[in-house]
Amino acid sequence: RLHRRDEARGPTMYEASLLGAPARPDTSKWKLAAAFLLGAGLTALLGRLVPLTTNTAIAWDWTYRRERGLDPFNRRDEELSTPHKLMVDGGSTPVELQMSRGTCWIFAAMSVLEWSYRDHGVKRGWLQPDEYLRMSEQAFGVSVLDACHALPERKSCMIGAQEWRGSQLLPMDTQGGDVELLAYFKSLESAGVLPWSICPYTPKTGHDRDCPGLHDAIRTNPLTFNVRSLRSYFEPRAIKAALAASGRLMSFSSSMVEVKYLLPCTHATADALGCDPQDEDKCKTCPSERAYAGVDCCVESGRESSNMNGEFFRLPAGDYPEPPMEGGHAMGLVGYTDVYQSRHGFVGGWILKNSWFDGLPPGWEGDKPSGWKHARGSHSIAYFMQKVSQSDEMLTCPNSASPQSWSPCGSLKECRSEKTAVYAAASKQPLRLTCIDKSPFLKHFCERDEPLFLTSITPWKGGGSHGLHIACFLRDQGPTPEDDGKDAKIINRRLAEDDDEDEDDDEAAEPFCSPPVPIDDLALAITPVEEERYPNDPDVCGHYFFPYTMARDINAAFGGFEVSDFDIAWDESAYAANAYRHSHLNYTLLARDTHKQGTVLKSHPYLLKREDWAEVEDRY
Fold it and tell me: Is the pTM of this model over 0.70?
């Protein structure tokens, strides 16, 4: 067997000695040499290839991380390597108001669409960076209802109030819905987005289908797009990474809660708070904080979970009742910050474009209750990103209805002086106030229409987690009948001169103070006089801060937290810059609703008269 096996190659020298056959030559040394040379060649080749591929990979990774604002030399995990604060590319378009309708999801969808339209157009040179197209929320809502009614049998839209039609649930209105419908109805890509002028938003309920001429306008509508992808995120680490990678504005949905305060009900506070310290059924155990020492009765009182500084909040768990769920809300996610600290002490959170009114609620001036129990306030993205000063922000988003924006003064003489008035006006801080007595929480605290000045706002008993404050005011005797028609500055100067002649006047003007209340309760009891109700700039304001921890706690208790990222491409025919290529489309309303957007005003280190503000406006 050995001989047959080795016939082809011949015997080795050892085998030849056994078989008596001639030996073949020994080539092992040559094979060893060849193997050595081949190995050396491959080593040299790999020595050149490995550094090349390694360096290419390192260079690609470095570029990838640098373009996304990440530290190219930092190899820690994503949570640590994302920026400590971030704003979406180009910011957001101006805020629009949903008013009393439950259409927040439509406004969140339009925030996504308006942002993507501008971003797409700016990158291709069809729009300027400060331009935006105002789109119609009303038309979008009607188109969603049409798409729902066009669904085949056994498929139903879960939005608004619904009725059974055969085997389908069909929506009758748009009171509540999901932003994600934008990605599921392909018909919306050609019939869902139209310029605002086609049908302005109707603020009252019951008009969800009002949009005359919509279906005719769709035939020549140039606004068409394509939702290329939809991704949803549910935890902060993934959301931050997605924002850093894409730079896109996203939709943000969360359950909402009602904050439960415990107000001290005593004989001194009973009238203003409308409580009875002897009512055992309504009296609750007070928190264990030192401020409540000696208070036997606390009454539970609910408020919405945002303050007039545009910050969502909740009270600490334990001493305070757990906040109940009061619905859900959708907004536009425009960024985040790990370093901003809210007035309630929350550090780090999401920056959101909201669709709520600023200041006093709509209809507050009427004799009938407006239905709103609160005033509101908001800020610019730059404020929450801490890119502008407080003085800059006050010029753009003064939140003049907020008590914490009012200008305090210590005496009638000081309050009436021209110097005080000029300083207050220069910073858009209201000085002259009036009683409106519209608060459902602070009743008959002042006499309606009486003129007032704020002297101080202080935390109750030194502060704490209770969030209660006491505000004190002076009653102004105001102008006399002889002052009719005179300039306000002349009147104030005369009143100040009268104070100089009668030094007892200040002593007689004793301040009166509120009971301990959430400070925003005062906004519906007292408000600035009409000429000092400085409006927030809708081009820039309208943004809120939502703490990470609050979003996490609400989601753990009630669910409903979701961030959705839409990758949207717009057709080139959607831009007026390309109208010459599409003569069959109507660009009239698109051109009419394309506007310029302002930015935050810069403050100046000198005083200006109010009439001179416009001449020296300087913006970031």
Answer: yes
